[in-house]
Amino acid sequence: MRDVGLDLHKRSLGACAIDAKGKRLFRQTVNRQREALEQFAREQLRPTGRAALEATTKTRAVVTILRPRVAGVVVGNPLEIKAIAQAKVKTDKIGAEAPAQLLRCDYRPAARQPDGATQELRQLTNVRAGLVADGTRLKNRVPGLLAPAAA
Fold first, then answer.
1. Which of 89, 110, 118, 136 is deepest in the core (most CB within 10 A)?
2. Residues contacting residue 102 through CB under 8 Å, at least 6 positions apart
3. What is the pTM of this model?
């Protein structure tokens, strides 16, 4: 079995794979563009392996690419992972290896992942809330625009 830990960043992600004994198999940085992630998944992930990463705003897109290539994907709460894997020096390399080691030891605190329908409903709700706020802001501007200017 191969466990892969991922550390997501704005434009890239750090990846570190370990075997069942904890031996590091590889460590690399991958561009976060879809094509690069798909190539990484094809070349480095195994159907019997697992992947672990921290929950961020872009986690869902990465999980969607990884899920078909591994036996399981575990998304963890960043605060809980930090408390468990207190590293004195947090580098990108350590950031990717810690989730893999926690996964290997079955000590990975998993965050709840909503299904696709729930995630889509959340997104639609957020868009609606923004549109309602925009409408209210515009309605509140109209009286000010129509009122005569103070002399």
1. 110
2. 5, 52, 76, 81, 84, 85, 108
3. 0.60
